[in-house]
Design brief:
9 helices
């Protein structure tokens, strides 16, 4: 679909109309909602996906998605808990490190923020930031990438 979140949302909505408890569709629907700036629905979908299959191979990615939705909702403490668990459950994924860095910075967990910043490494992540359609969410994560060299973000 070439990154068209509108098309993705329509496909997922139709699939969930047919099979409302299909765990993979809920998972991907949650991620589409994160990218589209709908954190409430993203969190609902991802939490339901995790309840349906708590042993999923995508557990870390699901927890990461819930954490990012919490960040988008302005709930840094909750986000931190989900993202920290995601980091413990899964391998190193850039978006998880970025989310953990932002959440840890916002709640004053400077050592964890520093570790997450180191795990981010160097690179041009502008394409990842553009994944978020909401300009406020783009700015939050862009600021995190910019400030990781200086130190934890200020709230």
């Amino acid at each position: 679909i070439g990154g068209d979140m509108g098309v993705a949302d329509r496909i997922i909505s139709h699939a969930l109309h047919l099979l409302p408890a299909h765990q993979p569709t809920l998972f991907w629907g949650g991620w589409v909602d994160i990218a589209s700036g709908r954190p409430d629905r993203a969190r609902d979908r991802l939490e339901l996906a995790l309840r349906i299959n708590p042993a999923t191979g995508a557990r870390a990615q699901t927890l990461c998605g819930i954490g990012l939705a919490c960040l988008q909702q302005g709930k840094a403490q909750e986000a931190f808990l989900f993202l920290q668990q995601a980091a413990q459950d899964g391998n190193g994924a850039f978006i998880r490190h970025l989310g953990l860095y932002v959440a840890a910075s916002l709640i004053g967990e400077t050592e964890i923020a520093r570790e997450a910043a180191l795990a981010l490494g160097d690179g041009d992540y502008a394409g990842v930031i553009k994944m978020f359609n909401d300009p406020q969410h783009q700015a939050l994560f862009a600021q995190a990438l910019h400030s990781r060299a200086i130190g934890p973000m200020s709230a």
